[in-house]
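TICKET: design request
STATUS: open
ATTACHED STRUCTURE:
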């Protein structure tokens, strides 16, 4: 293959010949991109793919990740017939056992989720476990689930079959060709330079795909692209053949960090230990090819001891292979897909966190469609490269973080679980103030944010559980303070963007669905839509002057929102600036917010002088702020935008004055519970690029009469066709169970979807959530006339449903 000439031009150049690159090549070729070139520095599969375990577990954390995994399983089943290469694909099923009560809750919740996603699953008894896995010590097994359609495969052959399928459809696959640079001009990819046998070549192309696995970060860095991933050592052993070993399903014992795979009469036992060993900090050897890393028996021994206890026959089985090989891990344990925000035409498919085989089939399909159509085939935000923060490519950060993320694959996935490593990189100027007042922090996009406040004498840390956690009562007090008095939130992590210039208004009118031509000082809640009417961004826009607008977006979506704005900038006089670091945000929320503001400021906060949805510059303490009268908790309140150097002063002024009105410091958990009571949507949970703005119930923020804007046609079409699904708010009848999100939503006895957001409504008195209900051709009365239940860990709980917010449906409190 390597003797083939290197083409001078291609529609896409894929860098990396592992299963990821081969899958992208296969799917692009299938879409008719016949002049695709894949370049592999050594031999196909020689990085990570060749030593992957090849487990095909179809249930993933979300509907669309499951959709991609199911696609992979289907594809791998068919590949052999298409290409003649045996893929070793075997539908042996899989079983997960729980050794603790917490894990039982987790796997039963997962089983409910699997049912909602259409994955075949069954909770099985310990006797059934024993029946399927006679060698297993089940003495301490508390519960188990079985997924009969899961499987296993031969990873290297899957990659080879994909490569052959790609070639059959016109792609060129070249080995022993090393990419030396990606050529760019005016912010877009124009080519690739590479070396073969000491000679340099250039391939002209407008699309590059970084599928370089553990080389991906360094390769991306060469082009100024952020791709935060790092290799870790992954260990497994393979036994000698075990006489009379029957065919077995894949087994996962997450409480012992292990998986078991039977293959050709031997057992493979792999580990996702809690503290992993990052590898390759100083780069990867130039001649690395099918390399293994040195054994570390001391590291693996505790795993092996547990495995022998779990499966006593291993004691005498004899170890044939002690394997250690590098795999790529990312800071949040999710892979990367999509176009890098820094460079047009630079695509990525990398960072698979040890689930590369099951993911790559679907991910390759999704990326190929994304490249072909200019938009993803469905919501892929959780793996979108635009979620990566520029600082995350820092190697010290990555090294610390990936030592944790490897183990997270099998760790307890408790709700609200926070990362324990690599913390504190982005902090509000109030961080130490809040910490001293009991704040317990969580992390989003690198930002430390106060999630809840411990009381004097209470431990200032999380105790995780599937039931009420140790902060439940703290949240209740904060929540009720916001409803009945006044609370203060530090929301400095908001992303802040200035859009300025002669054409700023026209630009935003074109991108936003609401009316942007408002008087200076007005604040508008709006969405940016794609051509399908799906929500690309959810934001508020404040008009600061004739030519300057101030956009506020969630901290987690800032890079995505900046990328969306920049991508749609035509030949216009507009400057887009990320000003997140310039201002802190203090939110004063609750019926007594006006009393508090009046104590710290001489300005007039009455409705007449400062009505809802307006911004005013105010004096506060001895400083200045811009007070935005908006709310994400459904109360009277102001978001105070304060320059960073005055933040501590303003906080101290508010705190001192707040003593008289019972001001309470509140955390993000309370922000969330209050906003769900008010049925305010959250991007990434309730609204995504796949959710039509009208079906999401946000038609009130769309102005079709203002003229053309992105997504307008899709809105008009939907108005004519009618809604196919609607977002409803739910409250459990029983005040005891909890909702987090992803619970199965049951309508008239049938699972129809999942809960998109959940929390506890401390004012309403029960767990609350939101979710979409299919409703094509139905009236509101039909939708509300149904009976609803929510399935939590296999148990169905009655739920009240509402189209209007259950809390303050007429928004009287907001405008009080
Ligand atoms: N590479 C191992 C995959 C582990 C799992 O699917 O559970």
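STATUS: resolved
RESOLUTION: sequence designed for all positions
ATTACHED SEQUENCE:
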């Amino acid at each position: 293959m390597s003797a083939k000439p290197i083409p001078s031009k291609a529609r896409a150049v894929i860098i990396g010949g592992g299963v990821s690159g081969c899958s992208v090549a296969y799917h692009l070729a299938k879409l008719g991109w016949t002049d695709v070139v894949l370049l592999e520095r050594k031999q196909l599969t020689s990085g990570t793919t060749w030593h992957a375990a090849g487990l095909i577990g179809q249930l993933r954390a979300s509907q669309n990740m499951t959709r991609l995994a199911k696609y992979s399983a289907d594809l791998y089943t068919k590949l052999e017939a298409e290409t003649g290469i045996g893929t070793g694909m075997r539908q042996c099923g899989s079983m997960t056992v729980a050794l603790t009560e917490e894990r039982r809750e987790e796997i039963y919740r997962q089983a409910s989720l699997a049912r909602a996603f259409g994955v075949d699953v069954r909770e099985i008894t310990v006797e059934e476990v024993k029946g399927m896995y006679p060698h297993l010590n089940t003495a301490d097994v508390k519960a188990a689930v079985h997924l009969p359609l899961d499987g296993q495969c031969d990873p290297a052959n899957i990659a080879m079959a994909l490569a052959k399928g790609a070639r059959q459809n016109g792609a060129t696959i070249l080995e022993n060709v090393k990419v030396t640079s990606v050529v760019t001009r005016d912010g877009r990819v124009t080519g690739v330079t590479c070396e073969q046998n000491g000679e340099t070549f250039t391939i002209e192309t407008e699309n590059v795909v970084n599928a370089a696995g553990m080389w991906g970060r360094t390769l991306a860095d060469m082009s100024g692209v952020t791709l935060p991933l790092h290799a870790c050592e992954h260990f497994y052993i393979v036994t000698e053949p075990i006489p009379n070993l029957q065919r077995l399903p894949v087994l996962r014992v997450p409480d012992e960090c292990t998986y078991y795979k039977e293959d050709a009469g031997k057992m493979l036992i792999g580990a996702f230990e809690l503290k992993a060993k990052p590898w390759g900090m100083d780069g990867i050897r130039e001649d690395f090819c099918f390399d293994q890393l040195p054994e570390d028996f001391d590291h693996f021994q505790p795993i092996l001891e547990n495995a022998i206890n779990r499966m006593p026959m291993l004691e005498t089985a004899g170890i044939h292979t002690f394997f250690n090989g590098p795999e790529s891990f990312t800071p949040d344990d999710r892979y990367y897909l999509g176009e890098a925000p820094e460079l047009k035409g630079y695509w990525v498919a990398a960072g698979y966190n040890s689930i590369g085989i099951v993911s790559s089939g679907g991910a390759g399909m999704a990326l190929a469609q994304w490249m072909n159509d200019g938009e993803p085939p469905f919501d892929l935000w959780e793996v979108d490269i635009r979620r990566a923060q520029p600082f995350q490519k820092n190697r010290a950060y990555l090294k610390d973080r990936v030592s944790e993320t490897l183990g997270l694959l099998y760790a307890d996935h408790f709700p609200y679980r926070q990362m324990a490593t690599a913390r504190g990189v982005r902090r509000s100027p109030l961080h130490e103030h809040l910490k001293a007042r009991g704040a317990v922090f969580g992390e989003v996009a690198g930002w430390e944010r106060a999630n809840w406040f411990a009381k004097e004498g209470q431990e200032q840390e999380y105790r995780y559980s599937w039931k009420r956690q140790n902060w439940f009562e703290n949240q209740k007090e904060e929540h009720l303070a916001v409803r009945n008095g006044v609370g203060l939130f530090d929301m400095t992590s908001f992303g802040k963007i200035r859009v300025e210039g002669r054409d700023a208004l026209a630009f935003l009118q074109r991108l936003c669905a609401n009316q942007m031509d408002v008087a200076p000082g007005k604040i508008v809640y709006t969405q940016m839509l794609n051509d399908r009417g799906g929500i690309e961004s959810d934001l508020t826009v404040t008009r600061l002057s004739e030519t300057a607008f101030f956009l506020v977006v969630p901290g987690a979506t800032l890079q995505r929102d900046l990328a969306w704005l920049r991508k749609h900038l035509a030949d216009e006089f507009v400057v887009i600036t990320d000003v997140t670091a310039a201002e802190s945000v203090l939110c004063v929320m609750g019926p007594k917010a006006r009393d508090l503001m009046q104590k710290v400021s001489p300005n007039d906060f009455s409705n007449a002088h400062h009505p809802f949805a307006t911004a005013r510059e105010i004096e506060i303490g001895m400083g200045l702020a811009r007070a935005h009268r908006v709310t994400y908790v459904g109360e009277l309140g102001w978001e105070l935008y304060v320059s960073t150097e005055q933040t501590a002063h303003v906080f101290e002024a508010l705190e001192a004055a707040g003593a008289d009105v019972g001001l309470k410091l509140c955390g993000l958990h309370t922000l969330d519970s209050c906003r769900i009571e008010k049925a305010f949507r959250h991007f990434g949970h309730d609204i995504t690029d796949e959710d039509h703005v009208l079906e999401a119930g946000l038609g009130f923020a769309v102005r079709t009469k203002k003229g053309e804007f992105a997504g307008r046609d899709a809105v008009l079409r939907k108005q004519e066709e009618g809604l196919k699904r609607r977002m409803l708010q739910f409250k459990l009848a029983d005040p005891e169970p909890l909702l987090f999100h992803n619970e199965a939503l049951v309508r008239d006895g049938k699972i129809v979807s999942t809960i998109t957001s959940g929390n506890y409504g401390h004012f309403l008195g029960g767990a609350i959530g939101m979710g979409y209900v299919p409703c094509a051709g139905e009236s509101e009365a039909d939708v509300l006339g149904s009976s609803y239940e929510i399935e939590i860990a296999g148990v169905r709980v009655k739920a009240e449903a509402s189209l209007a917010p259950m809390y303050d449906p007429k928004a009287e409190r907001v405008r009080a």
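CLOSING REMARK: The two ends are 73 Å apart (CA to CA). The first strand starts at residue 12 and ends at 15.
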